[in-house]
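Hi C.,

You asked whether I'd gotten around to modeling the 180-residue construct. I have! Everything is below, sequence then structure, no commentary in between.
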Amino acid sequence: MRELLKGNKLKLTYLRDEDIEAFTHWYEDTKFLRLYSSEPSIPKSPTEITKIFDEVKNSPTSIGLAIRDILSNEIIGYLELDGISYNNGTSWISIAIGDSKNWGKGYGTEAMNLALDFAFNELNLHKLQLTVFEYNLAAIRLYENLGFKREGSYRDYIYRDSKRFDMYLYGMLKSEYANV
């Protein structure tokens, strides 16, 4: 049997208390926050990060996973399945590679492939969906290369730097996933 949640460079694991320090650092980086969230780019304290962790851990409809370098075990990102509707086989998925030094190295692709395999083949979900801001071109490329289809847009959804941007809705059905 193959090993779930483990790839060539990465593994997906549970969130650990020591991960709070990395998240706190990421939440101090406004470039990261403006790609990750539509909320104002406000740093969060370790206490606030702990509360977020606890909400995910205690939710019956969320699975939060740390993205870790397989050799160093260092956390480099976060992946979440959220709003899981087991009876309908649907879920939202989101990913963030925290530190910009790790961007553009293929970590997002590998982590998403691990998550897609887990969601479709282990959880037996039928559909995954996500949103992305129109200015996040790297993420859009990633999602489209993985096989996600643009299903719509929330026009003028986000206001950044005196401009309005759309937020795109993407989805992928289990039958569209290449590794089924």
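If it helps when you're writing up: The chain has a mean pLDDT of 94.

Thanks,
B.
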